[in-house]
Amino acid sequence: MKKQHRLMIALAVVVLAAAALAVVTMGQDDNPPPLEEKPTLVTDKLVPLGTPEQDYKEVAVLTLFIAWEEGESEGKLNVERMSDAYIQRSYAPNVLGRVGPLEMHLRGEQEFSYALIDPRPEVENERANEDNVEDVPLHLETEGINQYEWEVVVPLYQGDKSLNAEALTITYEGDVIFETEIDYDAWRKRGEERRNEAEDRQNDEQDRQEQ
Fold first, then answer.
1. Which domain holds residue 139?
2. Contact call for residues 170 and 102 (beta carbons, < 8 A)
3. CATH number reported for the structural domain that contains residue 204 in this entry
4. pLDDT, tens digit (0-9, with 9 covering 90-100), for 146-177
5. CA 92, 97, 101, 103 torsion-angle sign
6. Residue 109: per-residue pLDDT
């Protein structure tokens, strides 16, 4: 009799423990919310990413048209004109401190410089395995190209502060190929216009889909 009583007590304990475990499990979220994902910054495509909360985290985006001598793989770049420039709040990769033949220089309270990636389009050289291949352009596609659109994203902040840059200059092997003052008011206004234009296009597309 005592043995049966002890067995009943043990079964009751097991049932209570199982019930408690079920309550705890039901209180947990089967699909917990994912951790916040920060933008992936790709340094060879300096595209503005996301909108940070801090006002000082801005980038300038310039649309430049460049040219170089046809067939010259190492020919000097020339900036023929700037077709657009705007400023927007955006994350940007930390490129300050990189070095190379093509450089961006920001001037203001201090001077900051960093290397830019050569914007000329690259193609695989079909003659890579031939003799005297060093005499043939290896990577740059130049034949038939006399002008190329280049979008340059310029970080205007570093870490937790603005660079307070007043002007920018682009050099190639030390020679100045482009320079301009940073017109914060005009470029921010242009950035706002672009946002409005994008919203209008999106609304128009939604209207077309609903019709």
1. 58-210
2. yes
3. 2.60.40
4. 568 899 999 999 888 899 999 999 999 899 99
5. positive
6. 86
